[in-house]
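Office hours follow-up: a student asked to see two folded examples consecutively, so here they are.
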Amino acid sequence: MIKTNPYSEQDTHRAEIWDMLVTRDIQAYCDADWTQVAEDFIEQEFYAVNANNSQDPAQWTFAFSTLADYREEWLKQALAAQNTAYSEPLKTAVHRATTLNEITIENGRAIARKQFCGTIQRADGQADELLWQSIYYLKHTTSGWKICGFTGYLPYTA
């Protein structure tokens, strides 16, 4: 099931963020097409931290100091997914595993907690497990909400 934006009727700011981080991101990933999300970032401000699935910040690492580095890894992962034989539609499975219910906005900045909890069944009988969460840092600009960075691969919590 493809999820619909829960904010579209009552909150334009959260609706825009949700569409960017869920609808557009999942579509771009499944298509392995960075151009669909390229304009969603502030390149000059971007950085990302990898929590390495640890609650201990001492275990976290500086994952991407530039958007170009992140784009390269994103494309590598998206292409790997395209080259994997799944026994179910990838887009549907990623939507099923993705939740974005928490978006806090204050003074033109936002944080959004995107969670992944589920599996994608592969044609070989195995499954790819998605079990982590990411915190995105966003900024409202004259052209809408943009991603400044994120802390990814945090341990999943309900």
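And the second, which I mentioned at the end of office hours:
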Amino acid sequence: MKAALSSTLLPTAWRDTPHHYGVVSRLLHWLTALLVLTQFFVVVMWRVFGETSVTLMLSRLAPHGAIGLLLLVITLARLVWWFNQRGQRPRQLRTLRGRLASAVHGLFMCC
């Protein structure tokens, strides 16, 4: 089982390095972001428009429970990947881009 998680089995582009996040980290990050934003979008649509044919369709396409379960699975995968890559990940940038990323992530933590 440990060999299946070994980062040496993956091509370099897939793994994290001290200089950049790999494909796996980026994919898991953006899947999480997409699902969280989808949840927010559906909730906002319900709050703004109430029960309409559009909001009912959105609820059928993106049911809250299914997205929540998928988020849980992806979060667990992210934790396993983070643990596996913990010594190779880049440091937080102190540039404008790094500060904006921290601010956006902080906003999601407080919501």
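Two things to take away from it. The radius of gyration is 17 Å. The helical segments are 2-5, 23-49, 53-61, 64-85, 96-110.
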